[in-house]
Design brief:
Length: 189
Amino acid sequence: MIEQNERFNVTGLIGLADEVGTDILGYPVLGTDEDLPSLIKNRISAIVSIGQIKTPEQRIRLFQLLKENDCELPVIISPRAYVSKHAVIGEGSIIMHGAIVNAGAVIGRNCIVNSHALVEHDSVIADHCHISTMSAINSTVHVGTGSFIGSGSTVRQNTKIGEYCLIGMGQRVIKDCDDHTCIPPKKCR
């Protein structure tokens, strides 16, 4: 998506220790997370490009590290996504191919709205959430900080999902969920 937008020149990637010095997708791996502060000499643009599986902790840690080092965290929107001009997208968030974000929707900071996901009108997705592939967040839903909505899941209109919830793949959420709820419960173990 970054290549398709043509807004940025990719200087390099941050990866694992055994990847440093190699190329991934044609870009050099410059260092690890620990090297970030020394690699950032001038205000640069950066994006957290790892996903969120079970916990948002790694994405939150990296987002905060980039903020502490005065990086610009741009919004990245696929040219093949639809985002209403009446929606608000927070810094460092990524809207992937085929995603739809309708009027009045608010997407927080450091979020992923993955491929073909739908965020309907007047819904609020708080910071550090991952709305996974083909999921549908219907109108006036509120998804709390750090929550994950699995692929193909559907959330009923006017529903509140608490903070740090994990909604598994293909689930139907038809009533409010307290903080740290897992659906189905065995997904949290």
